[in-house]
Amino acid sequence: MINVESRAARITRIVFLGLWLVITLFPLYWILITSFKTPGAIFSYPLTYWPEEFSLINYVTLFQKTDFGTYVVNSLIVATAAATIATFISMLSAYVLARFEFRSKSAVLMAFLVTQMIPTFIALGPLYLLMVKLDLVDSRFGLTLIYVAVSIPFCTIMLRGFFANIPDALEEAAMIDGCSRFGALFRVIVPIMKPGIVAAFIFNFVNSWNELFLSVTLMNKDENKTIPTALNGFISSFNIDWGSMSAAAVLTILPTMVLFAFASRYIVQGLTAGAVKG
Amino acid sequence: MTNKKLLAGIGLGLVATLALSGCSAAASDGKVTLQMVESLTSPARTDLLNGLIGEFESENPDITVELVSPPTDQADQKIQQMLQSGSGVDVLEVRDLTVGSFSTNGWLSDMTDEFDGWSGWDDLTDNAKDVATADGKMYYVPYGFYGISLFYRTDLIEEAGFDGAPQSWDDLVTQATAIQESGSNKYGYAFRGGSNAYTNALLAISAYVADDIDVTNAYKLNNGDSIFSAPEAQDAMDTYLTLFEQASPPSSVAWGYPEMVEGFTNGSTGFLLQDPEVIAAVQQSQSITADQWTTAPMLVGPTGKAIQPLATAGWGTAEASEHKAESAKLIQFLNSGDASIQFTQENSLVPILTGAADDPFYKTGAWASYLTMNENPDVYITAEQPRGVSWFTEWAGKADTELQQVLIGQKTSEELLASWDAYWTEKWAAE
Amino acid sequence: MSRRMTNVTGRPAIRAGAPRAFPPDRTRRRRQFSMRRGLTMLAFLLPAALFVGVFTYYPMLAGSQMAFRNWNLNDLTNTDWVGLANFRKIFADPNFYVILGNSVVWVVASVVPQFIIGFAIALWLRRKFVFRGLYQALIFFPWAISGFLIGILFRWMFNGEFGVINDLLSKTGLIDTPIPWLAQPGTAMVAVIIANTWYGVTFFAIMILAALQSVPEEVYEAAALDGSGKIRTLFSITIPFISTTLALTVLLRVIWIFNFPDIIWAMTGGGPANQTHIVTTWMITITQRGDYGQASALGLIVVAILLVFAAFYLMAIRERKGANS
């Protein structure tokens, strides 16, 4: 890396990074202070950039009027399970796609890519009928299965890239030493790729955590709802309940932010995992 | 390696939890579970329904009710999917917009038999009875009616030198224009240009053609032509567009319900034409106090009349339901006595029970205008809109789009009316 | 992350990217392996294939048959096969071409700024500075929010009369009269693109930063020794090195953005006067009318468009790579 940075370049860098930080964080700031305003004050004009009186009433109402705690638990269970299973399955398929050559390989890759092109909306109706037949409607298990299916394509493509960076000599050696391929994968490769796997897991988790349409379609009873459904529920035909919605939004965003913060170094590191310099 | 095992362990554990929780509880020993689905969902109303359901369950210990409350935006589609799958729905919210298509598809059960001899029938108002028995079948029993009235700022009118609320559309334009002060964020009229914009335009048009309107089909004149073909319709549109150009916020082209309500509740707009649900929202406002606003009856046209659209929704039973008798019981409970009164009052609906309108709740303040309208049916004429036809959602989308085109100057109002006239004439000819 | 110069048995480690070689003493075992290999391959691919096949492809195929039928949920008494009638209806609708144009504008005008800003941020984040970790965590957070929530939030921020953005713009003296953002076709499109850009920069920043970090130090050192200036290094060395990642990231984002109705739907509903509709939001409108037949046809058209685009794109990449090496 070129170590010398001119003063002008340094100032430019700091200014732009600072500006972008403000732009990025401003909406979050807005939701945050809205959640601390009383419902009547939210709509007042002129706009207030700092609440005149801090109030926790939105958070209280949120837990009193709706079963928000349950929704959080549901989202947690479904997102974690889906991310775990999807990451695992994607590792297997990504491994094959990275290591082996076979005739239908590009077809398989294309098949994964095409799934990203399908608008979710078409599949909702038939998917619902399918889940009814499988008796998996209104169950967290069913929703998890769907989220796994949705996450696998991109996760596979992502992990395949990581695998390609790791020389196969490593597992060949392990196999010579008596491991099965599966064992070689998990005992030798995975530890090296840990950051990449964490990155993949987080992508899957966030996508499942924030997913709305599939969740609304498949879950019926109130106790089975996930957070995005609840958030959407604050928009009724005549009103947007900004108070409860911003409180709920804050509670939804903060955990993912923390997760991101914790794992951001992994995410970036992970995408270069296994780069061995000769 | 422990990481791998840990991960695998967590994964398996979660799968196990999920698999177990995925099992649905089997119904047992004569207890009936009803699944009830609502579509005009709001957290407050869901809360209220759960309360009423609780009361019902304690009066009927053999029946349990599960309430499904999808978010409004996707609710109608979700109900369609559930009905299409043929299972999972017993009682559902049926709207005047959806009853046509649901019944055509054979998804609704005709409840005439279950309601035969129901003691609560005679307590219903005539309007409610008419809607419930439309076309000789009972597909749903309405739980209330949506009214419209004019919300206005008493202090702004006084300041501008007027001594009362506007009565006709022309009056409204005059007063709103006087109030409007661009540049200082004071606007006359909370114009609806976004979603469902056509409804307000329709109010103006119907008021202007009120003398010739067919009360069985509010889009038709007595001579069979559509209301859009009458010359008065053009006058109505001209007035309505003047209202937009001279007395409304410029970005109201995109204003939907929430923006309109905010415009009034944050004090920056003088007039709002909406239904009673707004009352609760305005009462919560911290920008305007109770003595700064009230409501007035709908605006009349040049001949001194207005048309009340009488939109409604209610509860019905799914054809595929295996518990039709119990479903009917639940609907009867919700639409009678205290349950019904509580529901209509807390949801700001015109009640379905005779005598309920005598409740002091409806006589005071903002509700008084609704009473005025109900007591003068010759001025505020009730006409039924053809909301049940299967193409009504398509109509709504087309009407909104074309109205917006006029507002942003891509179309003239003459072209608009011609297009609307052609649309309905074609549809009626094809019926 | 340990870097071994030799593998576990003491033989020299093979450099990443070197062609796979089969030393002669392994040829015998290769035939034995191939059977075992085949089974392993199958076993590893099966779970993914099952999930995607059952839960993605099956509903999609089942859904696409609606495209060839008269399928309106408001009147299911007639679901006859109508061949290409739905498609003909779509192509005959003048709205469709406006919407296609909007979709292209939406994609291009979103991807380009996202790419440039994301690239710039990635470049600047390469250099260590105090609180870099915290900074990274903070600016990556838009990715953690759901699209629909972003749409609603920006709808209110861009509100012409009471929105934050107009408020800030007038307070800082940049505008005299409030801009009716969502009321005019042009500014509405700008508004949704701004919202989308705010959201999407993160993905590019993360991917590009990672790719940049995989460029070995030696490459830069060699370039510096050659006397290459910073900008020249960037364009003639760094970018080519990470070009595959860049290309794939762009492809993915183009596909995702084309298919991304959440922000537009929540912010403008496709208005005013259908001027911000993209194909997928138009699909939602048609679905709400109950016309699932036409909606499915639209969906198939979307897949076809993206497929063709991806095919050309990948071919172009492969040609370029061939030309470069």
Walk me through what this model shows.
- The complex is a heterotrimer of chains A (278), B (431) and C (325).
- With 278 residues, chain A is mainly α.
- In chain A, 73% of the residues lie in helices and 1% in strands.
- Chain A has helices spanning 7-35, 39-42, 57-65, 68-99, 105-115, 120-133, 140-164, 169-176, 181-210, 213-218, 227-233, 242-270, and strands spanning 235-236, 239-240.
- Chain A has a two-stranded antiparallel sheet.
- In chain A, α5 crosses α7.
- Chain A starts with 6 loop residues before the first helix and ends in an 8-residue tail after the last helix.
- By secondary structure, chain B is an alpha/beta fold.
- Chain B has helices spanning 2-21, 43-59, 72-85, 99-104, 112-115, 126-132, 154-159, 169-179, 197-208, 231-247, 257-265, 277-283, 324-334, 337-346, 360-363, 368-375, 392-407, 413-430; strands spanning 32-37, 63-68, 91-95, 141-146, 149-153, 187-189, 269-274, 293-296, 306-308, 311-317, 380-382.
- Chain B has a five-stranded mixed sheet with strand order 2-1-3-10-4, sandwiched between helices. A four-stranded mixed sheet of chain B has the order 6-7-5-8. Chain B has a two-stranded parallel ribbon with strand order 9-11.
- In chain B, α9 (197-208) crosses α10 (231-247).
- The radius of gyration of chain B is 24 Å and the shape is globular.
- With 325 residues, chain C is mainly α.
- Helix content of chain C is 68%, strand content 0%.
- Chain C has 13 helices and no strands.
- Residues 1-20 of chain C have low confidence and may be disordered.
- The chains are: A mainly alpha (278), B alpha/beta (431), C mainly alpha (325).
- Chain B binds chain C through residues 76-77, 80, 84, 100-101, 104-105, 183, 185, 187, 193-195, 249-254, 256, 259, 262-263, 266, 268, 390-391, 393-394, 397, 400-402, 404-405, 407-408, 410, and chain C through 72-77, 159-162, 177-178, 180-185, 188, 268-269, 271-274, 285, 287-291.
Feature tags:
heterotrimer, B: 431 residues, alpha/beta, D-Maltodextrin-Binding Protein, domain 2, five-stranded mixed beta sheet, 18 helices, C: 325 residues, mainly alpha, 0% strand, disordered N terminus
As a percent range, the share of strand residues of chain B is: 5-15%
Principal-axis shape of chain A: globular
Give me the secondary-structure category of chain B.
alpha/beta
Which structural category fits the helices and strands of chain A? mainly alpha
For the termini of chain A, the CA-CA separation is 18 Å
Q: What count of structural domains of chain A?
A: 2
Please state how the strands of the largest beta sheet of chain B are arranged side by side: 2-1-3-10-4
Order of helices and strands of chain B: HEHEHEHHHEEHHEHHHEHEEEHHHHEHH
Strand content of chain A: under 5%
* CATH homologous superfamily classification of the largest domain in chain A: MetI-like
Describe the biggest sheet of chain B? Answer: 5 strands, mixed
Oligomer: heterotrimer
Mean pLDDT of chain B: 87
Helix content of chain B: 40-55%
